[in-house]
């Protein structure tokens, strides 16, 4: 029996399993998807609007009704401890993982009701998703451009520019399977950028990337945001998020604990201190005397 190609957005179905009162409750019905340009009731359309996203894996509630508004033209950081639900939330918001409840709108386009239209607006660098690593770096980025229906000459020009900007020219003819972890991150970023999307969603983009390459990537992303693009980046590095991002959300236990501009969330302290206050889990360092016996 074949599954229908496009299922309706799963907003109002009852939970599959019994759950605590707050967990996986269906959110209020979202407003109809707005057009992808202009504004609604005088307010600009958010680059990404997440409304009540929820996901359960067996007995574990990974994401528990997350709602976020990412302003267009912002550099938005998502921070949280391991297992907080960041990757699951971003996967649902970008069409990689179907939510149990909730909606995600990219510039007013519903990701699950109109997936092809929404995905044209996005570039995604997911964490841990396999690439076509039996292609060379140049072939992979070229394939990404052609897959999106771009003109071959335009693709060729952009591939050359991206490989140069990301310091991958010397390895353009090498198979991606032979790349280091940092090089793999960079070629995946090039594939996400090739079609000049309006929204970039990057899950741990600086992990395993050397400091020089990280500085180059930051420069590319800052120029992209300055020209009107929007970047969402998930990261564990608080100092990096604090220096780079204009807005931030702190996520833990599948919920948003705080969101807003970096200054609003910091509330007069550093982002790292505020993060520890919100998330908890700091431990005193008494004990371990056996480490101080030298």
How would you describe this protein?
The structure is a single chain. It contains nine helices and twelve strands. The chain is an alpha/beta fold. The protein has a domain at about 45-130 and about 200-280: Rossmann fold. It has a six-stranded mixed β-sheet, sandwiched between helices. Strands 4-3-6-7 form a four-stranded antiparallel β-sheet. A two-stranded antiparallel ribbon has the order 1-2. The model is unreliable at about 1-40 (pLDDT under 50).
What's this model, at a glance?
This protein is an alpha/beta fold and 294 residues long.
Give, in spatial order, the strands making up the sheet with the most strands.
Answer: 8-9-10-5-11-12
Helix content: 25-40%
The total beta strand count reads: 12
Q: What's the SSE pattern?
A: EEEEEHEEHEHHHEHEHEEHH
* Bulk shape: globular
Terminus-to-terminus distance:
68 Å
Pfam family, one: ABC_tran
Domain ABC transporter: 48-278
Protein name: ABC transporter ATP-binding protein
Region (Disordered): 1-38
Write the layout of secondary structure elements.
Layout: E1 39-40, E2 43-44, E3 48-57, E4 60-70, E5 75-79, H1 86-93, E6 101-106, E7 109-110, H2 115-120, E8 122-125, H3 137-147, H4 152-165, H5 181-193, E9 199-203, H6 211-226, E10 230-234, H7 238-244, E11 247-252, E12 255-261, H8 262-266, H9 271-279
Parallel strand pairs: 5-10, 5-11, 8-9, 9-10
Antiparallel strand pairs: 1-2, 3-4, 3-6, 6-7, 11-12
Helix pairs in contact: 3-4, 3-5
């Amino acid at each position: 029996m074949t599954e229908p190609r496009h299922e309706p957005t799963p907003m109002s179905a009852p939970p599959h399993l019994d759950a605590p009162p707050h967990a996986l409750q269906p959110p209020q019905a979202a407003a109809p998807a707005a057009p992808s340009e202009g504004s609604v009731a005088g307010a600009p359309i958010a680059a990404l609007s997440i409304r009540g996203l929820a996901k359960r894996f067996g007995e574990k509630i990974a994401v528990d009704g997350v709602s976020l508004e990412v302003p267009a033209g912002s550099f938005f950081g998502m921070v949280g401890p391991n297992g907080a639900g960041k990757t699951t939330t971003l996967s649902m918001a970008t069409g990689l993982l179907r939510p149990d409840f909730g909606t995600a709108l990219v510039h007013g386009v519903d990701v699950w009701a109109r997936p092809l239209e929404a995905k044209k607006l996005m570039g995604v660098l997911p964490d841990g998703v396999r690439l076509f690593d039996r292609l060379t770096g140049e072939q992979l980025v070229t394939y990404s451009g052609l897959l999106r229906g771009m003109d071959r000459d335009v693709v060729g020009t952009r591939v050359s520019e991206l490989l140069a900007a990301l310091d991958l020219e010397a390895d353009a003819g090498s198979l991606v399977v032979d790349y280091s972890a940092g090089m793999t991150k960079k070629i995946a970023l090039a594939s996400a950028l090739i079609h000049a999307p309006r929204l970039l969603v990057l899950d741990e983009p600086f992990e395993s990337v050397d400091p020089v390459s990280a500085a180059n990537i930051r420069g590319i992303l800052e120029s992209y945001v300055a020209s009107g693009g929007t970047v969402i980046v998930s990261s564990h590095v608080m100092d990096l998020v604090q220096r780079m991002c204009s807005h931030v959300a702190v996520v833990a236990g599948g919920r948003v604990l705080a969101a807003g501009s970096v200054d609003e969330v910091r509330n007069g302290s550093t982002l790292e201190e505020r993060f520890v206050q919100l998330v908890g889990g700091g431990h005193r360092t008494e004990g371990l005397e056996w480490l101080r016996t030298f």
